[in-house]
Specification:
By secondary structure, the protein is α/β, with parallel strands linked by helices. It is built from 10 helices and 7 strands. β1, α3 and β2 form a beta-alpha-beta unit.
Amino acid sequence: MPGPPNKRQKRDDYQKAQENLKLKRTAQGGNQGEKGNVVLPQKKFYRQRAHANPFSDHMLEYPRSPAEMDWSTHYPAFIGDAAVTSTETASSGIAARHPEVEVADIGCGFGGLLMALSPLIPQTLILGMELRMQVTQYVINKIVALRSQHHDKETSIPGTPTPYQNISALRSNTMKFLPNYFHKGQLSKIFLCFPDPHFKQRKHKARIASAQLNAEYAYVTRPGGMVYTITDVEELSQWMTKHFVGEEAGDAKELWERVSQEELDADPCVKIMSEETEESKKVTRNGGNKHIAVFRRKSNPDWPE
């Protein structure tokens, strides 16, 4: 007689059940008639290491260029046949232009920032990008469940998608493939929240901020766009600042400027970033410090005559 299932078997069974629910909800447009019974996925069944090696081959699927990326499966209420169009656009006979992803949370973890930003900017498409497979699957399943819970909620603007339709997540290695997803100047905000500090000197090359990566962030960020960073490691915050606007920035130094504290105090995204992510809540519970630095994308310098 077989014994009780072990932890791995329980996780596998739970995730299979969640996947079946996700497929059912997606097929029915998030409306199952079970709005009071939709249960959010449980984090304990998505066990994963704290970090993944960005230099390993993870057998990832990614587009060869941004033009080849199909966003309709991520944002069906905004893009594709099920997209909601405004009354004015429909009556005018003008074809609606599909919106593009404007906000990227790189290393989104368990998606706390995505869920908090969604109601703040409900008409802006937000994407979480995460390398860890189990964590990514948790975020995807949670978004599907939240959409089902809120599928019949009325929005403040008639004819607009219901809550949480503007967020999605995918598994990707942004240190290698960021320009494969976004074209030049597409993003208005990038979030780097509590990235792996990689304390050892030989591991610094794996940090999410470097002169090379910051140049890529500058490529996909529009002039006036922001890169938000937060960490509980002061040395890492200083590192990121040096590589955006300091002596280690290289040519990318001409493309960024640090945002003043006065502007940060008035920015609701800073408050959400420092309070709503899982890591920020953990730091608060432990009485740690949070080091915030935000950088604005400057206009491209003129070509020398």
